[in-house]
Amino acid sequence: MVARTAFPFLVVALAWEVTAHLGIFPRKLFPPLEEVAAALVRLTADGVLPHHVLDTLLRLLAGFALAAVAGVAIGFAMGRSRRAEDVFLPLVSIGAPIPGLAYAPLFLLWFGLGNMTAVWLVAFVSAFPIIFNTWTGVKAVKDIWVRSAQAMGADNRRLLHHVILPGALPYVLTGLRLGLAQAWRILVGVEMLAAVSWGLGWMIFGAREFLNTDVMLAGVAVIGAIGLALEKLVFQRLEQYTVVRWGMMS
Amino acid sequence: MTATTARIERATSAYRAGLTLLLAAACYEAVARSGAFPAALLPTLPKVASTLWALLLDGTMLEHAGYTMYRVLVGLALAVAVALPLGILMGRFRPVENFFLPLASALMPIPSLAWVPVFILWFGLGNTVAILIVFYAALFPMLLNTWSGVRAVNPLWLRAAGAMGADERALFWKVIIPGASPFIITGLRQAFLRAWIAVVGAEMLAASDWGLGWVIFDAKEFLNADVMLAALAVIGAIGFLFERLVFGSIERATVMRWGMVRTAKG
Fold first, then answer.
1. Which of A67, A113, A175, B4 shows the smallest number of beta carbons within 10 Å?
2. Distance (Å, rounded) from C-alpha A132 to C-alpha A71?
3. Phi/psi of residue B223, nearest 5 degrees
4. Which has the closest alpha carbon to A222: A39, A77, A6?
5. Torsional class of A154: left (φ above 0), alpha (ψ -120 to 50), beta (otherwise)
6. A212: DSSP letter
7. How far apart are CA B78 and CA B65, in angstroms?
8. Contacts of A9 in chain B (CB under 8 A)
9. Do residue B114 and residue A223 have CB atoms under 8 angstroms apart?
10. Alpha helices in B35-115 (DSSP H)
């Protein structure tokens, strides 16, 4: 199984190596893999890469936390109250189809270059999938569950805690997952635009000036690894502990 | 009785929705006119509307939109041309799946915009970078959806068609392709959304004089917030139109007519 998964990577790596060593493209632009690996080790050893990664992750967390709190709250309100739905739905449906990065220059004008722009933009953009999914989730809670809980004498608070929250959770988790993926995609782009002083997006964009293709490719690899880890480690665990254990999803 | 209450409820909903939008616009207008923020950063709505009108009339906005559409459509077409056959092959043949699936899962988590600096170095500023970024962004949703669509074709249908004497070609065109089409159309939809996001970013970073993303980014230099908001409106409108009109009608003409998904969904 491991050999089978590794095989395609070996083929691609070999093709890359051959192309790089044949010298069809300038070595500066198409470095062999050992140079990329060396760049990765060098940057990690002198602490530059960890600093970039840390700053990027902090920004991601701050933006995503804002989006999660606001998004779940708005989505919940929309699902529970018709009035809130009527108020928020038009606003959300106008804002959602515009690609997140299109707002970036506007945010740059309003908040200036740097952290504020990046965090607010990430929060703003990743809130939309969270709102939509929470809203759908609350509406998808089976009517019969709500009514049977009420018939058994559950008050509003217990209804919320024991029926609606767990019932909507699979959707909420899907929303958070989509939101985080969205946040990650936007963050890399906005770090390039907002000229933050540290951050992976800035690292690879800044490397362009000095034709450091090896640094860029090392950065791209790290970005991919973090994206994969967010998806696999964080959310699959979370799902295992909640909805899968409760038997709501397999 | 219930029909009338439903109608009244819908009317109140529409009324409230309209009221919200008006209120939001009024709030924005009040803040913009209050002078708390510089007018260049927060232009009033009539100003944005007149800028949009002027840009539409002199054709620049249309030209920008045309360049952006060209990049999106070429990139998307390339992605479909690669992902559709590959996805079908992956769904039909085990070795192909074993080879390409790990590669796809490793490349997919890399945001397309992370490739922008690398592609700029390789291909220079301009159209090629934007098209390739769109291609990269659109490739994976298309590929994975096609693959799962082909695998999700009911094996009973395959056997039934085989028992009725369908050869490989008929099986492919009459059973597998229509069977996988709901997934393929979903893939196309997601691919377009991704592509639409990616093209705006690519145009900002790999500036090339034309394109809606470039307009917005360029307007920042001159503090033209009205131009930005106007371009933002155009970007939103095109995305919305594509989603509703193009994909909606594709869906109606194919999978809905064949009765594979219910109309109520859309």
1. B4
2. 8
3. 55, 35
4. A39
5. beta
6. -
7. 20
8. 102-103, 106
9. yes
10. 45-57, 60-92, 94-107
Q: What is the DSSP letter of B253?
A: I
What is the Cα–Cα distance from B88 to B93, expressed in whole angstroms?
8
> What's at B229, amino acid-wise?
L
The structure tokens listed for A218 are 């090392």
Angstrom CA distances, A247 to A29, A209, B201, B220, stand at 52, 53, 41, 51
pLDDT tens sequence for chain B (266 residues): 466 777 787 788 788 878 888 888 888 888 888 877 777 778 888 888 888 888 888 888 888 889 899 999 999 999 999 999 999 999 888 888 889 988 888 888 888 888 988 888 888 887 888 999 999 999 999 999 999 889 888 888 888 888 888 888 888 888 888 888 888 888 898 899 889 888 988 888 886 778 888 888 888 778 788 888 888 888 888 888 887 777 777 777 777 777 665 544 33
Residues in chain A: 250
Q: Are A173 and A249 in contact (CB under 8 A)?
A: no
> What residues contact residue B203 under an 8 Å CB cut-off, 6+ apart?
B68, B71, B130, B211, B212, B213, B214, B217
- A106 vs B228: CB contact, 8 Å cut-off? yes
Question: Torsion angle of alpha carbons B155, B158, B160, B166, nearest 10°?
Answer: -170
Contacts of B24 in chain A (CB under 8 A): 91
Give CA–CA dist B69/A199, Å, rounded: 31
| Exposed/middle/buried for residue B94 (C-beta within 10 Å: 0-12, 13-18, 19+) | exposed
Which residue among A9, A207, A216 sits closest to B102, beta carbon to beta carbon?
A9
Q: Which residue of A105, A220, A231 is in closest CB contact with B219?
A: A105
In this complex, the residue of A86, A102, A205 whose CB is nearest that of residue B200 is A102
Measured between beta carbons, the chain B residues lying within 8 angstroms of A219 are: 114
B74 token code pair: 């070429």
What residue has token string 């690398």? B118
Structure tokens that stand for B230 in this block: 């106007």
Short-list A62, A5, A78, CA closest to A199? A62
| Entry field: residues in chain B | 266
